[in-house]
Amino acid sequence: MKRYVIDLAVMNVIALAISLLAYFSGSNLIDALILVLFIEGGIVLVLAGLFGFLLTQPLLWAFRRFFLGIDAKEEDWETQAKEKRSTGKRLIVLGAALMAETTLLALAIM
Fold first, then answer.
1. The whole model's pTM is what?
2. Is 8 left (phi over 0), alpha (psi -120 to 50) or beta?
3. How does 42-67 read in b/e, with b if 16+ C-beta sit within 10 Å?
4. Distance CA 40, CA 35 (A)
5. At what angle do helices 74-109 and 2-24 cross, to 10 degrees?
């Protein structure tokens, strides 16, 4: 749980920094923050899908084994797949939190 909160805090600090740059260039701060959080949430959800689905598939394992010549043991592949799935789950939660935060901010300024 602590890791989820740290990830969310880091993403919010990044979003705030980008929004402040947009504010100093003449944009509205809240609108820029909402847009940046929305874009960050979308990128994180896409990365979560990549980690949770694509990188854990046996097709990728076969590709690495046959075309790249990387011969990993089945146990090693399973542990790597489990780690990538857990990273994907963490990113899904982070992306959903960013999207919820975006929605709440957008509803608050209406």
1. 0.75
2. alpha
3. eebbebbeebbeebbeeeebeeeeee
4. 9
5. 50
